[in-house]
Structures are given as C-alpha cells and as structure tokens.
UniProtKB/TrEMBL annotation:
Chain segments annotated as transmembrane: 47-67, 79-99, 151-169, 181-205, 225-245, 321-340, 352-373
A Pfam family per the record: SDF
Cellular compartments annotated: Cell membrane
Coiled-coil regions listed in the entry: none
Primary location recorded for the protein, binned into one broad class: membrane
Organism in which the protein naturally occurs: Ectobacillus funiculus
Topological category with respect to the lipid bilayer: Multi-pass membrane protein
PANTHER family recorded: PROTON/GLUTAMATE-ASPARTATE SYMPORTER, PROTON_GLUTAMATE-ASPARTATE SYMPORTER
Name by which UniProt lists this protein: Cation:dicarboxylate symporter family transporter
Keywords: Cell membrane, Membrane, Symport, Transmembrane, Transmembrane helix, Transport
The keyword Membrane is assigned to this record: yes
Length: 423
C-alpha cells in the first residue's frame, strides 16, 4: 500500500469495502467483526479535533503579530471573510435543501439505541434563541468545555487567548512558540491518523453496505453533483459580483491563476500554491504588505469552498438519517459552521474533521461521514480550487479598500500575461 498515495489507498479501500459489504449483506456476524475498526477510526479523528482547533486558532490570531499592526486592515479583512464565508454557508444550505442529495436512503433502519441518543441531543437544541447561543459561547470553565468536547466555548476562549498573546508582545512569544509546537505535533499526529484512514473507510463503508445494500451508495452521486454545481455557481455569481465591484473580472483572475488552480485542484492542497499566489497577486497590483497578511490569514478564515462543502455535507448526513432540521435548527447550523469553519489548516482532508465536529455540535450521527470519506478527495479538489480563487480575490478587494491597489502595475502585468499566453 506504501506505493500508492493516500487518495488511491482510500479509493481501493472504498471499492473493497463495498465488495465486502455486498458479499456479507445481512450478515450480522461479519458486521460485528469489522465494525470496531471503523469505530476506532472515528475515535482517532475525534481525539485530534480539540487540540487542533485550539492550537490553530491561537497561532492564527496571535501569529499575525502585535495587535496594533492589525489595525484597519485586520478589522476589514475579518469582516470581509466573515461576510463572504457566511454567504457561502447559506448558499450551501440552500443548495442542500434544493438538491436533497441525502434522500433515497433510509438510515432509520439503524438500531434504535443508536438513533435515540441523537434524537435526545436534537431535542436539547430545539428552538434555541440568540441569547442562549451567546451565553453558551462563553465558557464558565474552559477545561470543562475541553473535557466535554464542547467546541463553541473552546473556540471563543482560543480566540480571546490568541488576542491576549498578541497584546502582551515579547512576553507572549514563548507561549505562542509552545502552541506552534503543539500545532506541528498535531499535524504529525493527524498524518499518522490519516494513514489509518483506508482501514477506517473500508470498515465504515463495509458495515453500511452490509446493513443496507449497495443501493445505499446512490446518494453519493447526487452529493458530488450538488457540490460541484453549487461551487461553480458561487464562483461565477457571488465571487463574480465581488470581482466586478472591485473593478476586475473573476474570469480574468482565473486565467491569471490557471496554473495554480490546476495544481491546487490536482493536489487538493491550497498550501502547495500559497507562495505562488502571493507572488502573482503582488504582480497583479496588490502591495506586498497586504498580500502577506490577507492571503495567509484567508487560508484560516476565508475558505469559501470548504464552507459550502461543510454546509452541504452536514445536511446530507441529516437527510440520510431522515432527520428533518427546522429553519431555526438550520440557522443554528449556519452559526455553528461560522465558527467551526474557521481555524482550519490548508491541508487535504481538513474539512473532514470540521464536518465531524459540526455534526457533533448539532447532535447529528457521526457515522454518516463514512459515506463522505470515500469520495472526500473528489470533493476536496473542487473546494480547494474555490478556496484559492476566494483568497486571491480577497487580496484585491482589501487592496482596493485600503486605496493601495496599483492599477498601472496591474495593467502592465495583465498585458504581459496576455502576450506570453498568446506566444
């Protein structure tokens, strides 16, 4: 298996899992044998969630530098990121309601004991009001929230703690260095955990197919179609309008970033193209001081493609299990995603962890991600490309907003780019 990349390994595991599931359809003994393997994988993923969220948020907030340096640019950037990603999440939820990608599979055939605990959690979150959500955001004891895996208060504390580290200057550097070390260590742990992913996917898919039959995989095609169509519409319409208001064209931007988009799409890693995007946006007329801040921070706070995917995937799981979320519950889901979609690293598969935490926060069945895991790479490719376009456009928007965009430099670069393209 070492000869193959992780994506190939997961695909092979997916095919083998489907084959084993079909072969042992209705065989409870076989299900009991392979089910623990999938459970271990789910536990491993849940194990790394809290440490990654805490360290990533603290490093992202504090690592920007002294709080004074953030100034207007920091405030405007965060505001822009929040607005655009919230629109992305809302569009993802709307698309999930229109496409209904999870329908056609009756997941209520699961044992009642498995569903009942999710139903109890769902009842506990019914009809929440804004005051309750705000109160819940503020932890009375952060260590209690960490122990319980209560993500929202942990995020709230991490953001404030990151701001505190930045505010104390030199004295905060050792603390920042500690969390940078934690984050690097957690990346290592994540890489080790992901090596177990093929086995986890094999078991989780195998168990589900053995329980429900091969027909249970039909909704996956609808999910892929829904994600790709929604992403394309978002880029053309939403990012297209933003680009137009900024005096440029999203199609021109995509042409300029053609090589980077292909690289990002094929590798499903936005980190692989980050340096090249910063260089191209600087040549495009954005000052270095803005590109060096906006683009790296954007890879934590401005993941448009990932936001759309997480919204669609969360409702996909709910629809698979026949859980009908009310309008108020979907608004709550939007608020949860506004928080959980922040602080992710720009590495392949990061959204998988966020979906699990979001499902947990909403009381939705975590087992549903077994279906998504098998095709996650296919979905990761398009969402990574959308993330790249969104963050590149953000640098242009912030440069224009700050009045520092160099129009002449942009004209010369576009002209030289077109000439080299023709040549």
């Amino acid at each position: 298996m070492k000869r193959f990349g992780l994506a190939t390994q997961i695909f092979i595991a997916l095919v083998l899992g489907i084959g084993v599931g079909v072969a042992f359809h209705g065989n409870e003994g076989a299900v009991a044998v392979i089910a623990p393997v999938g459970d271990v994988f789910i536990h491993l993923i849940k194990m790394i969630v809290i440490p990654i969220v805490i360290s990533a948020l603290i490093v992202s907030i504090a690592g920007v530098g002294d709080i004074k340096k953030l100034g207007k640019l920091g405030g405007k950037s965060i505001l822009y990121f929040e607005v655009v990603t919230t629109v992305a999440i809302a569009i993802g939820l709307l698309a999930a309601n229109l496409f209904q990608p999870g329908t056609g599979l009756n997941m209520n055939k699961l044992q009642e004991s498995d569903i009942s605990k999710y139903e109890e959690t769902m009842k506990a979150t019914e009809n929440p009001n804004v005051a309750d959500i705000i109160v819940h955001l503020v932890p009375k004891n952060v260590f209690e929230s960490i122990a319980q895996g209560d993500l929202l208060p942990v995020i709230f504390f991490s953001v404030f703690f990151g701001l505190g580290i930045a505010a104390v200057g030199e004295k905060g550097k050792p603390v920042l260095a500690f969390f940078e070390g934690v984050l690097e260590a957690m990346f290592w742990v994540t890489n080790v955990v992901m090596k177990f992913a093929p086995f986890g996917v094999f078991a989780l898919i195998g168990v589900n197919v053995a329980k429900f039959g091969a027909a249970s995989l039909i909704p996956l095609g609808k999910l892929v179609l829904a994600v790709y169509v929604t992403m394309i519409i978002f880029v053309v319409v939403v990012l297209g309008v933003i680009a137009k208001l900024s005096g440029t064209s999203v199609f021109l931007l995509m042409k300029v970033l053609k090589d980077e988009l292909i690289l990002a799409f094929t590798t499903a890693s936005s980190e692989a193209v980050l340096p090249r995007i910063m260089d191209k946006m600087e040549k495009f007329g954005c000052p270095k001081s803005i590109t060096s801040f906006v683009i790296p921070v954007g890879y934590t706070f401005n993941l448009d493609g990932s936001s759309i995917y997480q919204a669609l995937a969360s409702l996909f799981v709910a629809q698979m299990y026949g859980i009908d979320l009310s309008i108020m519950q979907q608004i709550t889901l939007l608020l949860v995603l506004m928080l959980t979609s922040k602080g992710m690293a720009g590495v392949p598969g990061a959204s998988f962890v966020v979906i699990l935490t979001t499902l947990g926060a909403m009381g939705l069945p975590l087992e549903g991600v077994a279906f998504i895991a098998g095709i996650d790479r296919i979905l990761d490719m398009i969402r990574t490309a959308v993330n790249v376009i969104g963050n590149s456009l953000a640098a242009i928007v912030m440069s224009k907003w700050e009045g520092e965009f160099d129009k002449e430099k942009a004209k010369h670069y576009i002209a030289s780019f077109k000439e080299s393209d023709v040549a």
